Amino acid sequence: MKKNTPSILGGACIIASVCVGAGMLAIPIKGAGAWTIYSSLALVFTMLMMTLSGWLLLEAYKKYELTASFSTVTKDLLGNKINFISNLSVYFVGGILLYAYTTVAGLTLDGLLGSVFGDNSIGIWSIIFVLTFSGLVWHSTRAVDRISVLLILVMVFTFIFGVSGLATNIDMTILLDSGNEQGDYMRFAAVMLPVALTSFGYHHSVASMRIYYGSENKAKYAILGGTSIALVLYLLWTFSIFGNLPRADFKQVFVDGGEWKALLGALGQVIESQTVTNIINAFSIAAVLSSFIGVGLGMFDYLADFFNFDNSTQGRIKSWAVTFLPPLILSVLFPFGFVKAIGYAGAIATIWTCIVPALLVKKARERNGTEGFHIGGGNFLLAVLIIFGIAVAVIHFLDMFGVLPNFKG
C-alpha cells in the first residue's frame, strides 16, 4: 500500500503550535505602548524575518542526511566554537520556554482544580502536566501532528466564541486611540520586538519538518503556513484587546505585575459573561499546551541528534529525560511569571534564529553553490537578517536596564 504523504496543513499546525502559546498573552502587554498600528507592523515584519530565516536553515540543510539537525550542520559548516555557542543558546531558549509553560500550566491547573495536594499542589500539577503531555512527544511526530491540529482547532473555536464578545464590541476610537499624539506610539515600538521574535520562534522544529516531509520544498510551505496562522491569530487577538481596553487602563495591568493573570483580570472587567471568560481561559490553556508540545518536539529531536541517542525505546527515553526533566525540576523549585522568561528567550534566540542561519547559508553557498533548494535575496538578505537579530538582542538588554522608554499606562 502507498504510504500516506503528510499534509502541509499538519506541518503548518505543528509550526503554528510552536509559535502560538503563552507569548500570545505577552504581546498586548509589551505592545501597549506602541498600540495598534505599530504593534501590528512589528508583528508583520518579525513574521517575515523569522519565516525567511527558517527557509535559510532548510537551504543550509539540503546537502545533509534527513536525520541531521542544527547541531550537526552548524558544527560542519561553522566549526566547534560557534556550534557550542549555538547549542547553548538553543538549549537555553527551548529549556526556558518549557520551564515557563510548565510553570504556567501548574499555576493554571491549581487555579482551576484547586490545591488538592496541599502546599505542594502547584508543583505536583506541573509534574502531572509534563508526564501526561510529554508522552505525545516521546511517542512520535505524527502524534504531535494530530494533537496539534486538534489544539489549533480548539484555539480557533475558543478564540472565535470567546473573543467574539470582545471583537464585536471593538470601539474604533479605543483601537486607534484617537485624539492622542500619534508620535508617542513609535518610541515604544522597539520593546515589542523581542517578544514578537520569541512568538515566531519555531526554528528548532525546522529539522523535524524536513524529516517529516523528506523534502525542503514541502517543509518550506509548512513553515509559511504555520507562521501565517500565528500572525493572523496574533493580530486578531491584539485588535480585540486594544479595541476594548483603553490604553490608559493598562496602567492597572502593570500595577498588578504585568503578567498574564493581570491581563486576564483586566479583560474580566470588560467581559460581562462568565461563560465567555471561561472560554478565554480555555483558549489560554490550549495555547500554552500547544506551545509546550511543539517546543518539546523540536527540543526532543535536537537533543537526540546532539547526544547521538538512537530511536529505540531506550534512546527515546534518554531524549525525553534531557528535554523535559531539567525544565520540570526548575519549574517546581523556582516558579515565576512567563513574560520575563519570554523576554530573555527572545534576546538569546536571535543567535540561532537570525545570526547563525545567515552564517550557515553563506558558508553553505561558498562550499556547495546554490544548486537545488535556494532562497533568493543574496548577501543583502543575509545582512538584513543579521542586523535585525543583533538589534533585537540589544533592544532587550537596553529595555532590561531601563534605557528605552517603557510604557506603564
Automatic annotation (TrEMBL):
Provenance organism: Phocoenobacter uteri
Signal peptide: none
GO molecular function: aromatic amino acid transmembrane transporter activity
Compartment(s) where it occurs, according to its Swiss-Prot or TrEMBL record: Cell inner membrane
Keyword Protein biosynthesis attached: no
Family: Belongs to the amino acid/polyamine transporter 2 family. Mtr/TnaB/TyrP permease subfamily.
Domain of life: Bacteria
Keyword Zinc tagged: no
BP-aspect Gene Ontology terms: amino acid transmembrane transport
Name the record gives this protein: Aromatic amino acid permease
InterPro entries, sorted: Amino_acid_transport_2 (IPR018227), Trp_tyr_transpt (IPR013059)
Membrane-traversing stretches: 7-29, 35-61, 82-102, 122-140, 147-168, 188-209, 221-242, 279-300, 320-338, 344-361, 373-398
GO cellular component, one term: plasma membrane
Function statement: Involved in transporting aromatic amino acids across the cytoplasmic membrane.
NCBIfam families for this protein: araaP
